[in-house]
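User: Hey, quick favor. My workstation is busy. Could you predict this chain's structure for me?
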Amino acid sequence: MFKKSLVLLVSLILGASAFARGNDSEDVETQTTSSKLFSSDYKREDYIARGVIVGLAYDHVDSEIKLKYRNKVTGETFETSGKSDRGIDVSGLKVGYASMPKQGLGLNMGLTAMKFNSKFDDGKAYYNYRGEGNLTLSTVLSRSLALYGFGGANLNYVTAFDTEPVTPLGFGLQIGGGLSIGANASFELGYSVSFHQWRDDAFKDTDLEVKKEDSYVLMKGLMARATYNF
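Assistant: No problem, here it is.
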């Protein structure tokens, strides 16, 4: 499903790009990808974003659990799995860097700090910290609008797992699309996943052991971002 979504997104962006070029809707200077991304000699009007970006972040997170373990004495193997009954909302701030031409390939990266909005039984506040990097593919819609898709990888730290038998640091992927309005504002919608492993000592002081290759906790859900480029 994730792979099909990526192929569809890229196809849509490429199709829109070809349409824009065929109709001469915008006169954008042609440069090599490397010069657009890293050159210090550039025109700001040719970019969706270039430099520091800050903004608001929101995720709606669901969880999926699979645990397979064995009895070291008897050799018996057991398995359990489940999904969350309802999602959890997390919100916070994002800061990062972007170099995204209005036409063609670009990149953006950032750090996001978000707080779980739900109340927990222990009364504590929990946070989600994410570092991510994305490749982008953009096309011009009009003088003030540009469309882009993005996809990349992330490292996700969930403080709620600090005292759980699950590693708080997970690795994941994200994919989505964005709309640039004017020279500085962008709005993004996407979908992200983050894989977390069960700890080796999840069954400490027992005869049970986790089969880590068949066990995981998956955090997944929709993500929304509103950013401003300085």
